[in-house]
Design brief:
Elements: H1 3-6, H2 11-16, H3 18-48, E1 51-56, H4 62-71, E2 84-90, E3 93-99, H5 107-114, E4 118-126, H6 130-145, H7 148-153, E5 156-162, H8 172-195, E6 222-226, H9 242-247
Parallel strand pairs: 1-3, 1-4, 4-5, 5-6
Antiparallel strand pairs: 2-3
Pfam families: SRPRB
Organism: Laodelphax striatellus (Small brown planthopper)
Membrane topology: Single-pass membrane protein
């Protein structure tokens, strides 16, 4: 018998050999380790992206809402110059709440820092002063609705109409209507500006082309709710039930 023929084996004979069993065990172990690594990466990415951003204009009540949710207490607030970060526990799960400064010179930097980790965004509206601040509020909201990172991640967006305890406060339906009208004005204006620039391309478009904007057209899911973060005295509780109810959808 030739040396070449001496070492020829059928597939059945190969896998029946002891060393083949060893190799099979090694392959199985490697496959399990790879699965564990991929699962760990997936779980880590899911757990890291657990931030809820509290945004809005100055004096809308963001920090007061943040304080009530995390510490259940009223605090005298002032215009924030840096973010507030804390853990909010609900149904034995943890969400990271981030109170973003409302000043126009600061908010963009902090939103850029955290938007990649956002599962949800709360846009707080001062329901009393909205008509005076409608342009600023709509421009801020317009930026969020067309942000490339947020468009890709599609976090839930809650527009929270605060200060509902005051007589002149606008309800959620009125706030929604006012914002839609102003956003539509911005949509037309900015689209015309882009098309007037030779060679420009509008990569992100608010709503549907040729139609007046309404929030049902938003790529990012939008909800509205009302609240009152102000506590008149020690015996008065703030009306913030809508926020924990909304946050429950993330756990």
């Amino acid at each position: 018998m030739s040396s070449e023929a001496k070492f020829q084996f059928t597939p059945t004979e190969i896998f029946s050999r002891p060393d083949s069993q060893f190799y099979g065990i090694v392959v199985a172990v490697i496959a399990i380790l790879i699965s564990i690594v991929f699962f760990a990466i997936w779980k880590r990415s899911k757990s890291v992206k657990n931030c809820i951003l509290l945004t809005g204009l100055c004096d809308s009540g963001k920090t007061l809402i943040y304080s009530h949710l995390l510490h259940n207490k009223f605090v005298a607030t002032h215009t924030s110059i840096k973010e507030n970060v804390g853990d909010y526990f609900i149904k034995n799960r943890c969400l990271r709440l981030i109170d973003i400064p409302g000043h126009e010179r600061l908010r963009g930097r902090y939103i850029d820092t955290y938007k990649g980790l956002a599962r949800g965004v709360v846009f707080v509206i001062d329901s009393v002063t909205l008509q005076k601040e409608i342009r600023d509020a709509a421009e801020f909201l317009y930026t969020l609705l067309l942000d490339p990172v947020l468009l890709k991640a599609k976090p839930q967006l809650l527009i929270l109409c605060n200060k509902q305890d005051q007589t002149m406060a606008k309800g959620a339906n009125v706030v929604k209507s006012l914002l839609e009208k102003e956003l539509n004005v911005l949509k037309v204006t900015k689209t015309n500006q882009l098309t007037s620039i030779e060679g420009s391309s509008n990569t992100a478009y608010l709503g549907s082309a040729g139609k007046d904007f309404d929030f049902s057209q938003s790529t990012i899911p939008v909800e509205f709710a009302e609240c009152c973060a102000f506590r008149k005295d020690e015996n008065t509780e703030p009306e913030l039930k809508s926020i924990p109810k909304w946050l429950e959808s993330f756990v």
